[in-house]
Design brief:
This protein has helices at about 30-35, 40-50, 55-75, 115-120, 135, 145-155, 165, 195-210, 215-230, 235-260, 300-305, 335-350, 350-355, 360-390, 400-415, 455-460, 485-495, 495-500; strands at about 10-15, 20-25, 80, 85-90, 95-100, 105-110, 120-125, 140-145, 175-180, 265, 270-275, 280-290, 290-300, 310-315, 330-335, 420-425, 425-430, 435-445, 445-455, 465-470, 475-480. By secondary structure, it is α+β, with helices and mostly antiparallel strands. Helix 1 (about 30-35) packs across helix 3 (about 55-75), helix 2 (about 40-50) packs antiparallel against helix 3 (about 55-75) and helix 14 (about 360-390) packs antiparallel against helix 15.
Amino acid sequence: MSSLPQHETQSQAPAGDGWRRLDMRMLLVHPVREVVRLFPLLVGVLLAGSSTGRGGLWGLTGAAIAVAIGLLRWYTTSYQVANERIQVRRGLLRRELVSVSLDRVRTVDITASPLHRILGLVRVTVGTGLSDRKSEDALRLDGISAAAAERLRDDVLRRHAAPAAAAAPAVEEEVLAQAPPAWIRYGPFTLSGFLAVLFVLGFVWRIVSEARVDPARVGEATAGYLQLVGLPRWIELLAVSLLLLVAVACASTIAYALAFWNFRLVRTAAGSLQVTRGLLSTRSTTIEERRLRGVEISEPLLLRLARGARCIAIATGLRVGRGAERGGTLLMPPGPGPEACRVAAAVLRSPDPVTSPLLSHGGRAHRRRYTRMALAWAAITAVLVALPFALPLPSWTWEVSLVLLPLAAALAYDRYRGLGHALVGRFLVTSRGSIVRRRWMLDREGIIGWNLEQSFFQRRAGLVTLVATTAAGRQQYAVQDVTVEEALRVADAALPDLLAPFLVRGD
């Protein structure tokens, strides 16, 4: 494969022998970033120097060193795409060369922070399917022009086409999903701002501690005010709970807007799925369709109550579940449930795996859901009964378990409703969960093995869990709590050649 085209902008400086450096505009970014990163150390140097009367000089010297480190980061980083490999080299005292075959490339992410966008730059991350984030960072180019990033993505992901195919007219891209601004109403149901609220509360608590404010006095003042206006204590607890709920909802809505504004999913003419999104910081992720092994429709409980869902790709070498980023596998953000089903059908090029009814797992699986919930409820009740003996709590604390009992029964019923499986065309479809209900549609060609798992309680119930092993997504997709006969039937029907040598068939 040839190196990058030579008609790039002059700021994309060559490093010699086909190697290219980062954009020269990063000379404005790297020093600032190093100063911010080393700010605590610079403050320490400034305070240490102030004892000798040379704090200003020491601070300037530390800042100059940080700026020099930023300049060296640009000077010592270069890259190239050649000989079917992408290579990145960097470092001055400790030289490092990272070389990855293009066959191992899974995704190409192009992101741009607000500072990058002001300067017309982007950051390119080449995903190789490694679970170690430090290994992924080794293939990150922080600071090239947007045009150079597009050409780099084409060079990394392009496939060798036949001459006749190359001469054929290009097919226009197909827009599979586009999130309108109205979808922001699903933001509060994601609870993505919960950690942010906890962080703010921790920060406020730290300030209160540093200011030496006694929380007990604040509590006494609040209690005195409530007694003065004639409101009971539980009103205070309810008000605090509602305030916390409103804060989490607002933070979740803001996080949703920042992450998924202008969301767009398209199928390109080159045979890949491209996702673009973001408000302040933008992100563009490209997944080759030939690495796609299925789709997951995820419905967390709160989102399901709002009739919403999200859509996630099951792709070879890409792990699912890295916070809001979803590891680059998100195909549709939280939005309307019917729209998530439509997007999944469009990505799979068939609506059947999405709409086909699933087989029930029978009475024994139904009873097992209630048995497990009953054991969990009994354990919680025992803890609530014992707590008043260890802590200054009222003796009626255990009565809370009576409220939890109908909730546990409803959860058990909902968990059973979420169980199901089916073989639909070339897909194995399986579903489970209640707090987060997931429907997985896995291409049978992506299954590389089967596992039959059986716990002690499953053995007593005559049930097993059939686990499909794959190199994509979560790497294991389970058909939970089915009979042994049904598990063997599904495994044999899905991949007859794989299981046939281990089966004994009757006449």
